[in-house]
Design brief:
With 196 residues, the chain is α+β, with helices and mostly antiparallel strands. The protein contains five helices and eleven strands. A five-stranded mixed β-sheet has the order 2-1-7-3-4. Strands 5-6 form a two-stranded antiparallel ribbon. Strands 8-11 form a two-stranded antiparallel ribbon. The longest helix is centred in the first third of the chain and has 9 residues.
Length: 196
């Protein structure tokens, strides 16, 4: 039972039905019990309805549903809940990582403009770490391995290089675009942007 209750398998929507978070069933049950959220009873794209806690407790459990057994009997685990009084969509900046730098720089060497395959690329600190450079968005760029080796622990101008553009942190995205359906829950796809 703990496995089902403690995995983040419940998509949280704001009151405008926009995805804003992911919670565990235990969290979802608490929010439903105090009327902060209602669960969605979903039967495909054309049949979904918000269900308050007292009614949710009495819903039949279908073969495709996860459930937990309590002193009151088995209870269906919701896949999606809707918050009653929250309408914002928070924004989140991607975490700084080699992958996010590659995405920001569109797989191009920031000194030559050449399109790079993953094995040809490395992350360059514009101001080298040996000279006090930090690992932050505006000091890290994608560079070809050859260019990065040539630059070494020098500043770009000392190595005869020039950045094509100044590196910046990418814009923060609505969290709706950052939520991953890692458990492949079919109901979530109704509310998450399609991935290209």
């Amino acid at each position: 039972m703990n496995d089902v209750l403690n995995k983040a398998t419940v998509l949280v929507l704001n009151r405008n039905w926009q995805a804003v978070n992911v919670r565990t069933p235990a969290d979802a049950f608490c929010q439903m019990a105090i009327n902060v959220a209602t669960a969605l009873d979903i039967e495909g794209r054309d049949s979904m309805r918000p269900v308050p806690w007292e009614e949710w407790l009495r819903l039949p459990i279908r073969p495709q549903d996860n459930s937990v057994v309590t002193a009151r009997g088995a209870i269906r685990v919701p896949t999606v809940i809707v918050l009653a009084n929250y309408s914002r969509v928070p924004h989140k900046r991607p975490a700084l990582s080699p992958r996010s730098i590659r995405e920001r720089d569109r797989n191009r060497c920031q000194y030559t403009g050449r399109l790079l395959r993953p094995e040809e690329a490395s992350i360059d600190h514009v101001v080298p770490r040996s000279r006090g450079g930090k690992t932050v968005w505006d000091n890290c760029v994608l560079a070809s391995r050859e260019i990065n080796a040539r630059k070494g622990d020098r500043l770009p101008h000392e190595a005869g290089l020039q950045l094509l553009s100044a590196p910046r942190a990418p814009a923060a995205l609505p969290v709706t675009y950052t939520i991953k359906n890692s458990h492949e829950i079919e109901d979530w796809e109704l509310f998450l942007p399609s991935r290209v």
